[in-house]
Write a structure and sequence with these properties.
about 290 residues; UspA domain-containing protein; Rossmann fold; UspA; alpha/beta
């Protein structure tokens, strides 16, 4: 059985991530693992005995169990009558460096998805801002699809989903997982593209998109195509998600072409900090 991992730091955004992860685990028929990564070396310069380390792990484990129960149960209660389909929920306190530990978890074959708070959305624990660095690291290097939850996000609801792409190869590489999400959530699907200045290139891309859309492996049978004017990719996407009331923005995870334009220095933090909807980043095969 595949699973969703939700790393938490006990912030309000982590609570929203747990709710969103629970929602997806139920609708996509996945198990749910809620984890907190702690590193005793970050909180003290003194040598920590194994006994003290185990006590700290036990304390965090109890806090994590309570945190998970408070945020999982309200979501599962909306699926009354389908108890045979409810996800298996587990919690775990893991010791180590947060980014490296979660990256390692993302490479495991049974991990389908990670859901966590984005840049600037954490509680500022051990040390301040650690989850911002984790979000940046996972966005660029995660071994599985990643959803970043924005600060002050409410109850999970995905009625409109937008897949942002540069060329049709981006859509092909995202197709398998995006199709799985669309099949589970049944949203209104948009494909969004920020145009470049070269009109001949854009005309060719339009033709390639239409050819792909007529094929059997396209992510959705029904969709809307939204071509945005040439401009700064981040600004155009931010305005678009608000204007079209998009609930989930889907991006391909590769450090070239569209992904490079979007996540090069100076773009990642503003987008994640300012985007008011969850972002699903699907890594391409490396």
């Amino acid at each position: 059985m595949q699973r969703i991992i939700v790393p938490v730091d006990f912030s309000d955004t982590s609570a929203a991530a747990v709710r969103f992860g629970t929602y997806l685990a139920e609708t996509m028929n996945l198990d749910l693992n809620i984890v907190h990564v702690f590193d005793t070396m970050l909180s003290t310069s003194q040598t920590i005995s194994n006994r003290v380390r185990e006590l700290e792990k036990e304390r965090i484990g109890k806090q994590l169990t309570d945190f998970a129960r408070r945020n999982v149960e309200p979501v599962l209660s909306t699926f009354q009558g389908r108890l045979d389909l409810l996800p298996n929920v587990k919690t775990a306190a893991l010791e180590g460096a947060a980014a490296q530990t979660i990256l390692w978890e993302s490479t495991k074959e049974d991990v389908a998805l990670i859901v966590m708070g984005g840049v600037g959305a954490g509680a500022g624990l051990h040390p301040p801002g650690i989850f911002g660095g984790v979000a940046r690291t996972l966005a660029l290097r995660s071994g599985c699809p990643l959803i970043l939850i924005p600060k002050e996000y409410g109850y999970p609801q995905v009625e409109r989903l937008a897949i942002a792409f540069d060329g049709v190869d981006d859509i092909r590489r995202m197709a398998a997982f995006s199709r799985r999400v669309i099949k589970a959530l049944h949203p209104e699907v948009h494909f969004v593209h920020v145009r470049e200045q070269d009109h001949l290139t854009e005309a060719r891309r339009d033709d390639e998109f239409l050819d792909l859309a007529c094929g059997a492996n396209f992510p959705s049978y029904t969709y809307k195509f939204d071509a945005l004017p040439h401009g700064k990719v981040t600004e155009e996407l931010l305005a678009y998600t608000e204007r079209e009331r998009i609930n989930l923005l889907v991006l391909g995870g590769e450090r070239r072409s569209f992904f490079e334009r979007l996540f090069e220095a100076g773009h990642l933090a503003p987008l994640v900090k300012r985007c008011t909807v969850p972002m699903l980043i699907i890594p391409f095969d490396r």
